[in-house]
Amino acid sequence: MTHRLVPWLLALAALSFGPAAVAHKPSDAYLTLQVADTQIDQRLDVHLRDLDRELVLDHNDDGRLQWAEVRTRWEELQRYTAERVRLSVAGQPCSSVATGEPQLDEHTDGAYAVLRSRWTCPAGAQALTIDYRLFADTDASHRGLLRLSHGAGAPQTAVLVPGSTPPTTLALAASADGETPSGFAGFVAEGIHHILIGTDHVLFLLALLLPAVLVAGAAGRREAATQWRPMLAEVLKIVTAFTAAHSVTLALAVLDIVDPPSRWVESLIAASVVFTAIDNLRPMLAPQHRWRLTLVFGLVHGFGFAGALKDLGLGGGSLAASLLGFNLGVELGQLSLVALFLPLAWWARGTRFYQRGVLIGGSSAVALIAAAWVVERVFDLKLLGS
Question: What one-character DSSP code corresponds to residue 255?
């Protein structure tokens, strides 16, 4: 009975990141707080895509938001965000009023609404509590990226998880180097989080692993591998190549040595998934050379990881620690996926379900999904939903 369940568990592991998954980078909002005595000026940048998903801003449903569609709903946007971002000190709520004119700003992954407000808090506050609930009920992957400035000290940064209990509290005296409260461990956790919710990275890795438990047989047909050591050695080469490649470009991008446009990076990442999935269907590379393919595409994926790390906010003193922590988190997340998938694939490798259903059917589905991502990212369209 257990053996019969394995193919279905394997299919779930391979295809659970399908069309419903977001084809863009994970959802982020940018919360900037400038503290001056009892007043706090707030700027909140929220992606129009996320607001459209919640409030249906695209009135004519043409897949493209127009400035007029956003501007006419601006007061609603202000109310929506004000209800979901609240500040308090020592248990006493701060009061806020909306300020500023309707405004958009361009971030690496598209246009964001810029919503400003001014808070008045009780005097004598030593710490500020941020109760952040933006998209808490609809997007578990969303994160708020906080930057808090107070006086002449270095800004503090933090990653806000919507609806977290207890809410995030920061001292109103910034540390000397602007270190985040979560420090190194926090960047490790965010690296793990990013790889696990990064659907394109996950599908790329799974597409690489799908044929790993098979070998070329008679008439070029794939057959179940009989020895696990050569299979494991090949997987280790692939994982090592991916790690080495994306570590290089992650560092280059974070250090601003190389900074390619995000739109083209995301498009090339999607294209790498398409190519790898098609190579599963119509092999163009010998199995022993797939690590070279991984090395090349890993360079592109590293730039994608760098965009996520930059969004988290890096103080100069914490750059090395945050880079190392985030990269370590990505590797831990990647290894957890390999550890989950590979034993199941090895167990089911001899079944027709795996060789036809998972490898051929799964690779076909991945190729189609990723092809849609390429179109979405190159032409800034919405095909698979938000």
Answer: T
Say which DSSP state 212 is in.
G
Q: How far apart are CA 206 and CA 133, in angstroms?
A: 33
Q: Is 186 helix (H, G, I), strand (E, B) or coil?
A: helix
In the structure encoding, which two tokens stand for residue 262, read together? 């995000």
Q: Please give the Cα distance from 325 to 331 (Å, whole number).
A: 10
List CB contacts of 72: < 8 A, sequence separation 6 or more. Answer: none
Report, in angstroms and rounded to the nearest whole number, the Rg of the chain calculated over CA atoms. Answer: 23
pLDDT tens-digit series, residues 33-68: 999 989 999 999 999 999 999 999 988 887 788 899
271 in Cβ contact with 264 (< 8 Å): no
pLDDT, tens digit, for every residue of 106-130?
887 788 999 999 999 999 888 999 9
Q: Check the CA dihedral 168-174-180-181 and report its sign.
A: negative
**CA-to-CA distance for 246 and 104, rounded, in angstroms?**
32
Any residues with CB less than 8 A from the CB of 127 and at least 6 apart, and which? 89, 90, 169, 170, 171, 172
Report d(CA 249, CA 271) in Å as an integer: 18
Strand 222-224 to strand 143-150: parallel, antiparallel, or no bridges (unpaired)? unpaired
Nearest in space to 189 (alpha carbons), one of 339, 337, 333, 341: 333
Q: How far apart are CA 306 and CA 167, in angstroms?
A: 27
Helix (H) or strand (E) holding 294: helix 290-312
Angle between helices 183-197 and 199-209 (to 10 degrees): 70
- What is the Cα–Cα distance from 39 to 274, expressed in whole angstroms? 51
Q: C-alpha angle with apex 173: 169 to 179, nearest 5 degrees?
A: 75
Amino acid at 206: L
Q: Show Cβ contacts of residue 386 under 8 Å, excluding neighbours closer than 6 positions.
A: 22, 49, 50, 52, 53
Say if residues 156 and 178 touch (Cβ distance below 8 Å).
yes
Ramachandran angles phi, psi of 380, nearest 5°: 55, 50
148, 127 in Cβ contact below 8 A? no
* Structure token pair of residue 175: 């540390």
Which segments of 134-261 does DSSP mark as H helices, in order?
Answer: 183-197, 199-209, 228-254
What DSSP assignment string belongs to 54-90?
Answer: HH---TT-SSS--HHHHHTTHHHHHHHHHTTEEEEET
154 secondary structure, DSSP code: P
Under 8 Å between Cβ of 117 and 87? no
pTM for the complete prediction? 0.75
